[in-house]
Write a structure and sequence with these properties.
The structure is a single chain. By secondary structure, this protein is α+β, with helices and mostly antiparallel strands. It has four helices and eight strands, in the order E-E-H-H-E-E-E-E-E-E-H-H. An eight-stranded antiparallel β-sheet has the order 1-2-8-7-6-5-4-3. A hairpin with a 3-residue loop joins strand 7 and strand 8 (103-113). Helix 1 crosses helix 2 (31-37). It is globular.
C-alpha cells in the first residue's frame, strides 16, 4: 500500500506471522533474532539513538550501520535506513502487535519520500526487497525455512 501525508509518500507493508509477538519483535531488535532472517551477523545497541550493525558476512567486512531513531519495548522500533535514491536516509517504522487469530501482525512503514518519479521508482525497488525479507521472516518463524539459503535476494 502507498500512502501520502504532509511529510511525503510512504510504502506500508503488512505481514501476519503465526508466532508470538515478543518473538517476532525480538527478530527486529536482537542480534540472535536478526541473523535468523536478515543479515548473517549483527550487533545491536538497543535504545533511542542506538545503532544496529548488520554484517553481510560473519567477520563484518561488509557491513551497514543504521541508527535507531526510536525504540518502544511495547512493539515499535524505527530504523534510519539508506534509500536507493541519492544516498537519502528514510525511516523504517516497524510495529509488531498481537493478533488473536494469527499470532502477530507486522507493519512496516517505509518513507517519507518526495513524490517525484525518481523517488517513487526507488521506493518501489526498496518495497520489493522489503516484501521479500518480510516473507522470509514469516517462513523462518512459521515453517523453519530460511529462503536466503534456497533463493537469495
Amino acid at each position: 500500500m502507498v500512502l501520502q501525508d504532509e511529510k511525503g509518500v510512504w510504502t506500508v507493508l503488512h505481514e501476519s506471522i503465526a508466532a508470538h509477538p515478543e518473538e517476532i519483535f525480538a527478530a527486529l531488535t536482537t542480534e540472535a533474532g536478526l541473523i535468523r532472517w536478515f543479515p548473517v551477523a549483527a550487533e545491536v545497541d538497543l535504545r533511542n539513538g542506538g545503532t544496529i550493525t548488520l554484517g553481510w558476512d560473519r567477520k563484518f567486512k561488509r557491513k551497514l550501520t543504521i541508527g535507531i531513531e526510536s525504540f518502544d519495548a511495547g512493539g515499535k522500533i524505527v530504523w534510519r535506513w539508506p534509500s536507493r535514491l541519492h544516498d537519502a536516509i528514510v525511516r523504517l517504522e516497524w510495529t509488531v502487535s498481537p493478533s488473536v487469530e494469527k499470532g502477530s501482525e507486522v507493519v512496516l512503514r517505509l518513507g517519507p519520500i518526495e513524490p517525484s518519479t525518481d523517488a517513487l521508482m526507488a521506493m518501489a525497488d526498496d518495497a520489493e526487497s522489503w516484501r521479500w525479507y518480510l516473507c522470509n521472516l514469516r517462513t523462518v518463524y512459521e515453517a523453519r525455512v530460511d529462503m536466503r539459503a534456497v533463493r537469495p535476494l
